[in-house]
Amino acid sequence: MGLSASKRVKTSLVNSSDFDTACDSAFTHCLSLSQHAFDGVLPYQLFTASDHIHYSLLSHRRHSLILKWVPDPPSRAQVDSALKKVTHEGESSDVIGSTLFKEWAVVLYVDAVVGNAGKAVLSRVPIGIAGIAGIGSLTRSRRELIGTAVGAYAVGVATWIYLSLSG
Question: Whole-structure pTM over 0.85, yes or no?
Answer without folding.
Answer: no
